[in-house]
Amino acid sequence: DLFHHGDTQARRDYLFYLAVGTTKLKEYSQALKFIKAFLRVEPANRQAQDLESTIKSRMKMEGMKGMAIVGGAALAVSGLVGLGIALAKRWVPGTPTLPSFRV
Fold first, then answer.
1. pLDDT above 90 covers what percent of the chain?
2. pLDDT tops 60 at residue 42
3. 48-52, 58-62, 67-71, 89-93 — which one is most confidently predicted on average?
4. Which CATH number fits domain 2-90: 1.10.510.10, 1.25.40.10, 1.10.150.240, 3.50.50.60?
5. Averaged over 28-36, what is the pLDDT?
6. Can you tell me where the transmembrane regions are (predicted)?
7. How far apart (Å, rounded) are the C-alpha atoms in residues 65 and 58?
8. More exposed terminus of the chain, fewer Cβ within 10 Å: N or C?
């Protein structure tokens, strides 16, 4: 309501603070929308430009973390599959348990 009925200065402030708040909540795509809307009104604002670059770098970092997690999970699954195959090759049909490993 304040955004729709406030003056132009107040609207810019609301957009900036919404961008800051959503950045702190790690809702980067929403924060980027707010800061881009702010920059359309005031493109030369240095704080907003810095916040935009911070949001973009954090989005990139979160994306890399996500890819690392997926890669680690894939590596773990492939390791388990490999272990299963190795054990299956050593198993003799008709025996009740898997063979013991001798070192």
1. 39
2. yes
3. 48-52
4. 1.25.40.10
5. 94
6. 66-88
7. 10
8. C
